[in-house]
Protein 1
Amino acid sequence: MTRPSDFFLSILDLFAVIIPGAVLTALLWPTLEPAISEQLTAVGSWTTTAAFLVIAFVGGQLAYAAGSILDRPYDRWRTRSIGDDPFLRLAKEFAAEAGGRADGVNMYQWAEAHLRLWNPAAIAEIDRQQAHSKLFRSLSVVLVFAAVTGFVNSRDSILLGAVALLPPVVWRFFKLRLRATQDLYLYYVISGRNVDSGTKQTGG
């Protein structure tokens, strides 16, 4: 039997998928709602709300996937801004000292896996930060869509609003992602030293 606990909505689902998807659907709703209502009202009034939620989830997933196009510009911006990341260098030095990192596993994946195993509180904070950064990444896609929609439909207020909001939204994504990544490496080093210390004490 299916239980409520079988349906899990993570903070990433909420911020990176559901909220941007709802905004995207709200932009499309004036066009979609008449056709949906005509087809579904006979079934029940709740079906229109259900259709909105389904479209929001699917639209949010598409926006989330399309947002990955910003990852490469982010990498270039990070390289220009900070060059050799001291947090990444610190994490690599510690990983080399501690040993055990498998070939083919990048430093981010290794640090994240370590925190998930050894420090749930730290990884919960990283998940929260990453969810916030991906909210802005997905919203960037929604704003591009809004600008195109405003231009095609001659809705100047939507066009100008989307164009005005896009640069600060992208900038906020860059800043939040950098902070989340650097905090991940810092927490990894601190947690790793604590784990090693505890293991040595237990072994002693």
Note: The chain has seven helices and no strands.
Protein 2
Amino acid sequence: MNQIEFNKLFDSGERDFKEANLSGLDLCKVNLKGAILTGANLEGSKLRGVDLSNAKLRDSCLNRAELQNVILEGANLQGAMINYANLQNAHMSGVVLSYAYLKGSDLSDADLYKSSLYRTSFEDGKLVNTIFYGSKLIESILTGADLAHADLGACDLREASLVGANLTGTNFTDCDLTGAWLIRSNIKTYQLLSARAFDNASFPKEIYDEIRNGTSFRCPHCNEKAIEQKHYCWNCGKSF
């Protein structure tokens, strides 16, 4: 479908573009809120700032698309291919991205608050300052991703792979890292201590050494070592 054909259909009120070929089109000036784009080919399309909230984009292709400042709140992109796309400052709270692929994509400053990201691949992605707070990232792939200063607070990261990820300043407060893979990452012990759980997680040897020696489990209230239980200080009796 070329630009003229799309514009004609859109102006006539059409919002069902299921499996349509819209690759390379400039869609920056249209409102696609709630549109049906299941299985559509949007590779290389320009969608900067477009309202795609609650849109149906399951199994769609958005590889190398321009999606800066796009609104995808509540949209369904399950199984979508969004590799090497630009999603800087995207508004994606409540989005469904389970089984989607976003390898090498830039989601810097994007907001994915409380989103469904089961087995989503962000491999080698740029996720600087990205908000994931409260999201489900079970078995997600964040291998080699740049998560500097990202917010993973209260996230479910069970069995997730963060191998080789840049975790400088990343927030892990109250998240679940049970069984997560963190080897070759630069995670710090204080970040682990803020997590709700990290049983059976794999992390760098120096972190294991600090935990085994009890040098990093210190109570924030009295600064005494708290090695009997991670979140309870036997010295002052306070939980943390």
Note: The mean pLDDT is 91.
Protein 3
Amino acid sequence: MLFPHDLPDADVLHLPGWLAAAEADQLLYSLQAEVPWETHRIRMFGNWVDSPRLSCWIGDPQARYRYSGAEFVPRPWPPVLQAMRGRLEAEGHGRFNSVLLNRYRGGGDYMGWHSDDEPELGPALLVHYSVDPDDPYTMLLIQDGVARERSDGVLGIAALLPPPYRLAVVGRIVPRIVRDTLYDFIARRRRRFPGAAWCAMPPEGVDLTDRVLG
């Protein structure tokens, strides 16, 4: 059973005992021995410095990203981690195309406060769900590892909104092929209906806090 942790600005689910103690110990030993640990070089305050820990970026070939001025190319999945990935996905915990491993050797290794907001993570997510990042024909709503696109994405978002917008979910009674055809028609012509100015970003300084879901 998953147990949620009530933390500010974070969603954390804890699954106690997912690995037996002996299995968890063996996984730790295998990762220490099999993973090509390295010290990542990152740019901070205009200088290149060593990260205060050992790390390894592992993933599918397309899961590249940039962080602190450095580009990270994923290492191949080691067998032990590939097995864990398959087990997690088989149990319905989502789909995974990459993982960042960090190894803290002692009290001198640490992780500083930061935010994972690299722009490359967006295109990588699109590729993971088979959407062309150079021609994103659809919005994606990802819930519990499941991606909903086109009209399903719109109706999924509507379900998260307060009334009266939530009433839009009645559109689910319309066959999906009809909804998606209408979605594609509007999406490809969205600039023509209200005009290009309506699609532009708001002036700097405009507060959009009340328009963000969270």
Note: The chain has five helices and ten strands.
Protein 4
Amino acid sequence: MPTYILCSSLTAEGGQTLHTNPDRMIEVNREIDEFGCKLVGQYATLGIYDFVTIIEAPDNETIAHLSIDLSSRRTVKIMTLPAIPVSDLVGKLKESKQRPLHLCDQTQKRVGAASMTLWASTMRIGKLVSEIGRRAMPLVIVGERLPLPLHSVAVLPR
């Protein structure tokens, strides 16, 4: 089953409930099992989160349902993260055929008075478009595989 990390922060009401009834955590852990999820580990932490809980769940929908259900009580705020085993990520990176990101730092005058030409892989196009938009400059994108419906060269005016 996929693994998820739940970073939880108690609300004032949640802290009060836990202080008066520490066994409430055990009850919540039973509820996690009732959702068809498996509790892998749970830790009290210092910092912005009070607890980190590692859970295996059948799918994204189940963990989202669990997270919403627990949060709806207004005793805890939860940030749910999918966890990818490093070995899976390494395997995926090895099979990837994506070219590395290459940027040209220099401003070039290819499409009018002030434009910037950038060479980029599909990974950072959105970020680049945002940055160019912030500078109010036209953008020329040159590449073979772009996530936008563009061909080899496109101009996106501000």
Note: The helical segments are 12-20, 24-34, 60-71, 86-95, 125-134.
